[in-house]
Amino acid sequence: MNKSPAEILQFYLISQDIFSSPSSKENWPLFITTLPTGKGLDDIGCISDTTSVKDGRLMSGPNILHYGIQARTRSRTFEDGWKKMQEITSVLELVNNLSIVIDVDNIYILQNISQGSSVLPMGQDPETRLFLFSVNFITTIKES
Q1: Which of 58, 62, 114, 119 could connect to 85 by a Cys-Cys bridge, CB 3.0–4.6 Å?
Q2: Within 10 Å of residue 84's Cβ, how many Cβ atoms?
Q3: How far apart (Å, rounded) are the C-alpha atoms in residues 37 and 127?
Q4: Checking DSSP bridges between strand 106-115 and strand 131-143, what pairing results, if any?
Q5: Distance of alpha carbon 83 from alpha carbon 85, whole angstroms
Q6: Over the stretch 107-141, which tens digit does the pLDDT of each residue have?
Q7: Coil, helix or strand for 22?
Q8: Alpha-carbon distance 58 to 82, whole Å?
Q9: What sign for the dihedral angle of Cα 54, 57, 62, 66?
Q10: DSSP states of 40-86 as a string?
Q11: Domain boundaries, given as residue ranges, for the chain
Q12: Per-residue pLDDT tens for 67-122?
């Protein structure tokens, strides 16, 4: 695939208005792999690639991989962080053979996304005192 699963899901979650693009300077930007700090970066999200699960190999084709994804948020209040994580899980659990067109060269089919954990409150960031949450997913993505 030309894009990582995290990049594909970042594009999808931004298109669903769950998050904003980091370049837009709007509320709840969604970054890849990192939760940067700085002015205006209190309520933010991050999506990362994690360990994939190999589910066999087609006899005349490639391995079947279920890609691991972790979504994380950092927020000013516990309630806002919890609510944002619930929004993420609600939107992703509805995915069923969904076409994602990033551009002409990057078209993907999100076949499914399965939640692999509950929303996990991770306490407060020791530096910023903001609330941290995470949730894990497994997804099957096919390049179109």
Answers
A1: 119
A2: 21
A3: 10
A4: antiparallel
A5: 5
A6: 999 999 999 999 999 999 988 899 999 999 999 99
A7: helix
A8: 40
A9: negative
A10: T-SSEEEEEEEEEEEEEE-TTSPEEEEEEEEEEEEESSHHHHHHHHH
A11: 5-143
A12: 999 999 999 999 999 999 999 999 999 999 999 999 888 899 999 999 999 999 99
- 125 vs 122: CA distance, rounded Å: 8
CA distance 129 to 58: 48
| Listed residue (57, 45, 65, 62) closest to 112, CA to CA | 65
pLDDT tens profile 12-32: 999 999 999 999 888 999 999
In terms of residues, how long is the chain? Answer: 144
Query: Which CATH number does the domain 5-143 belong to among 3.40.50, 3.90.320, 3.30.420, 3.30.2000?
Result: 3.30.2000
* 141, two tokens: 């993505």
Which pTM value belongs to this model?
0.90
Give the type of residue at 135.
V
